[in-house]
Amino acid sequence: PGQGDFDRTLDDRGYAEAEIVADKAADKGYRPQVILCSTAVRCRQTSDAIRRSLPGEPEITFIDEMYNASEQTYLDLISSQSESQSVMLIGHNPTIADLLESLVGEDDFHSHLPSGFPTAGLAVLSCDASDEASPLKWKVVDFIAP
Q: What's the mean per-residue pLDDT of the chain?
């Protein structure tokens, strides 16, 4: 209470969920080379959980524009990265959910997330840039929820 949304911290449940998802991702061998993270406090706290679970020091870039951003802003951030890099976004709903649905299509989105994109969820995607015939080059490989 009394805090603006941008300054809102993770509560105990949020901390626990971030740690659980980060540990599950690490156990599965997911190692993003680049992490693009909103500067909102709870996103920075989530990035700390990710950092603690990964070996080495992943490159984390904090981006003010991710807070209250459009789906196109998130897409532009992904597109600006090297095609050979794995990229993780730590951002905000509904933008993350809208982006995921745009990338994989409505059917794939709803088959993996029938109840929508949950808080602290992690969608793992692959992209087949060589498939020029397909408008949907992205596929959901895995989804991790707390």
A: 91
Query: Do the beta carbons of residue 62 and residue 37 sit within 8 Å?
Result: yes
First vs last Cα of the chain: how many Å apart?
A: 25
CA distance 44 to 18: 11
pTM, two decimals, is: 0.90
- Which letter does DSSP use for residue 83 in this model? T
Query: What pLDDT is stored for residue 117 in this prediction?
Result: 93
pLDDT in tens, 76-133: 999 898 888 899 999 999 999 999 999 999 999 999 999 999 999 999 999 877 666 5
Q: What SS3 class is residue 95?
A: helix
Instruction: Give the burial string for 90-119 (b: 16+ CB within 10 Å, else e).
Output: bbbeebbbebbbbbbbeebbeebbeeebee
Helix (H, G, I), strand (E, B) or coil at 73: helix
87, 45, 38, 70: CA torsion to nearest 10: 90
Q: How far is CA 94 from CA 3, 36, 44, 70, 82, in A?
A: 21, 17, 18, 9, 26
